[in-house]
Specification:
The complex is a heterodimer. By secondary structure, chain A is mostly helical. Chain A folds into two domains: 55 residues, no CATH class; 213 residues, MetI-like (MetI-like fold, Orthogonal Bundle), CATH 1.10.3720. Helices cover 76% and strands 0% of the residues of chain A. In chain A, α1 packs across α11, α2 crosses α11 and α8 packs antiparallel against α11. The radius of gyration of chain A is 24 Å and the shape is globular. Chain B is an all-alpha fold. Classes of the chains: A mainly alpha, B mainly alpha.
Chain lengths: 280, 289
């Protein structure tokens, strides 16, 4: 039948196109990373295929010039505080949303969705103005508060379906056996929630370390995380050697890669949103 | 009274919602309303709506909406459309699947600066690609790939594609493969199975994927400065918002631009959700009996 043969002819170029795109994408990514890594390891690279010689001193230079020890500490402080606070605020709310079907539940869910649907610049600029008026502009607290805006809703949206799939009869059974609310939370629910909280926490961690806009708008000297320091260095070229900026970009990539590998080993990427699917 | 409320799902458990709601009001809603009010109190112009009038009267500001949409819409569309065939071919289990997924998702870790610097080194006038093209005699002069529209579009594909791919893969995972097999036993070929079974079930998920990819692309800022032409063809709306706030110190105008950005963004989201509402929405899992 001609229909079958024409189908094959149409289907296979599309398959080639798809795998071709994957191949090109991966090769291009490798070349892109190689270009930055080679530059960060080269002495002088002008009009040639490769730099004149290899050196590692740019990494030490970058670390000293940009004061990366304190920048890393700031980055860790911000990320740790955002993860801890967003879980602390988000998980109880997810529990209420998962276990109770009250009037207005959909409105509350929608309200938590909105910060994730707006570009960070939209609420980042007014928030930065408000923080400035309350003497929090440029402080670590301000940066942490700003980063909580998308993080708390993110925790709620990932934890609510996670809690929904925990059988409520487990809590009921514990209650009939005489456990109080505190005991149920600490001894029964807590251990069951740990995997979900770990996954949500790691994803918030990756998002926060990579979140540029909000930190950029709210940070000041002494409260700039690595992404912001990196942007300022790249934005004012000529002030620092191009190689030491590239070295810092590679350090940033290494940090993010570690976090992503950690996150992916706890979260199966293929059912990231399958769990999030709204019930029909 | 208490029992009747409890029947409607209202009891002390709801108190757990309070910290999150209070947080939302204090850190999100209050600044947002503050910004909205501020945008109607112009610092440099006279009149309640002066900031908005100024924005839409000045082509330097007004055109940023079209410029940003001109980057964000094609980039998001491309990312979503490219994700579908690739994710579709990666549904089943095969050796090295996790590794391949990891490699496709890896660009998430690169960061805008590394991507920008990499693109400039790779595609710049003296970069590897131009050098190869020159030596092969394909071009006479170096091709200008970066510091223009294409540089920014390329960045948006690099940062957006992994995200769109991951979401599409995840939505595909939620569609029961038994449905396609059932169609196959009824005589449907591979193309029919995809277009008549899987694709309609996937479409609502693709709408959400488009929205989330679009949010990222619409806010494009650092890459528009680093690999674009921030004074010209990649003068995106985030840049003028930033300049109003931090270079002209006009918080009122900056808030007005932020509000315009939010409205445009939500209009696109509403449009996509409106179309999505007309699509099939039902079980995509297996049905028994």
């Amino acid at each position: 039948m001609s229909a079958i043969s024409s189908r094959r002819i149409v289907a296979s170029p599309l398959a080639w196109l798809a795998w071709g795109f994957v191949g090109c994408f991966l090769v291009f990514m490798l070349a892109l990373i190689a270009a930055v890594v080679v530059n960060s390891l080269g002495t002088r690279w002008l009009d040639d295929w490769l730099p004149d010689a290899i050196t590692t001193h740019w990494y030490g230079d970058a670390w000293r010039e940009f004061g990366l020890t304190s920048v890393m500490l700031v980055t860790i402080e911000i990320a740790a505080a955002v993860v801890a606070l967003s879980l602390l605020i988000g998980v109880p709310a997810s529990y209420a949303l998962a276990r109770r079907d009250f009037p207005g539940r959909r409105v509350v869910m929608l309200a938590f969705l909105i910060p994730l649907l707006l570009p960070p610049v939209t609420y980042g600029i007014p928030l930065a103005t408000v923080l400035l008026r309350h003497d929090l502009g440029g402080t670590l607290t301000g940066v942490i508060l700003a980063n909580l805006v998308p993080s708390v809703p993110f925790v709620i949206l990932t934890m609510t379906p996670f809690i929904e799939q925990i059988d409520p009869r487990i809590e009921a059974a514990a209650r009939t056996l005489g456990a109080g609310t505190t005991t149920i939370f600490v001894r029964v629910l807590g251990p069951l929630l740990v995997p979900g909280m770990l996954a949500a926490g790691l994803l918030v961690l990756v998002r926060t370390v990579g979140m540029f806009e909000l930190s950029f708008f709210t940070a000041g000297p002494g409260s700039q995380p690595l992404v912001v320091v990196l942007y300022y260095a790249a934005f004012a070229p000529g002030v620092r050697a191009s190689q030491s900026i590239d070295a810092m970009a590679v350090i940033y990539m290494g940090l993010m890669l570690m976090l992503l590998v950690a996150a992916l080993s706890f979260v199966n990427p293929t059912n990231l949103v399958a769990r999030l699917r709204e019930s029909p | 009274m208490r029992r009747r409320l409890a029947e409607h799902g209202i009891d002390r458990t709801l108190l757990l919602l309070l910290p999150a709601l209070a947080f939302l009001v204090v850190i999100f809603l209050y600044p947002f309303v503050y910004g909205l009010v501020l945008s109607f109190q112009p610092e440099r112009y006279v009149g309640v709506f002066a900031n908005y009038q100024q924005f839409f009267a000045d082509p330097f500001l007004r055109d940023t909406i079209a410029i940003t949409l001109g980057l964000a819409v094609p980039a998001s569309l491309f990312n979503v459309i490219a994700s579908v065939p690739i994710a579709y071919r990666m549904r089943g289990a095969f050796r090295g699947k996790r590794l391949l997924i990891g490699m496709l998702v890896m660009p998430v870790t690169l960061g805008t600066v590394l991507i920008a610097k990499g693109l400039l080194t790779l595609l710049g006038a003296r970069g590897w690609v131009n050098r190869a093209l020159l030596e092969l005699g394909l071009v006479e002069d170096p091709v200008r790939f970066v510091n223009n529209y294409w540089g920014v579009l390329l960045t948006l594909v690099i940062t957006g594609f992994p995200f769109a791919f991951l979401l599409t893969l995840s939505y595909l995972g939620g569609i029961d493969p038994m449905l396609e097999r059932a169609a196959a036993t009824l005589g449907a070929g591979p193309r029919q199975r995809f277009w008549q079974i899987t694709f309609p079930l996937l479409l609502p998920g693709l709408a959400i994927t488009f929205i989330l990819t679009f949010v990222l692309a619409f806010a494009v800022f650092p890459s528009a400065v680093l690999v674009g032409e921030p004074a010209g063809e990649t003068r995106v709306i985030s840049i003028v918002a930033y300049r109003a706030a931090y270079e002209q110190f006009d918080a009122s105008m900056a808030s007005a631009i932020a509000m315009i950005m939010g409205v445009v963004q939500l209009a696109v989201v509403a449009l996509v959700l409106g179309v999505r509402g007309r699509l099939y929405r039902g079980p995509s899992g297996g049905t028994k009996g």
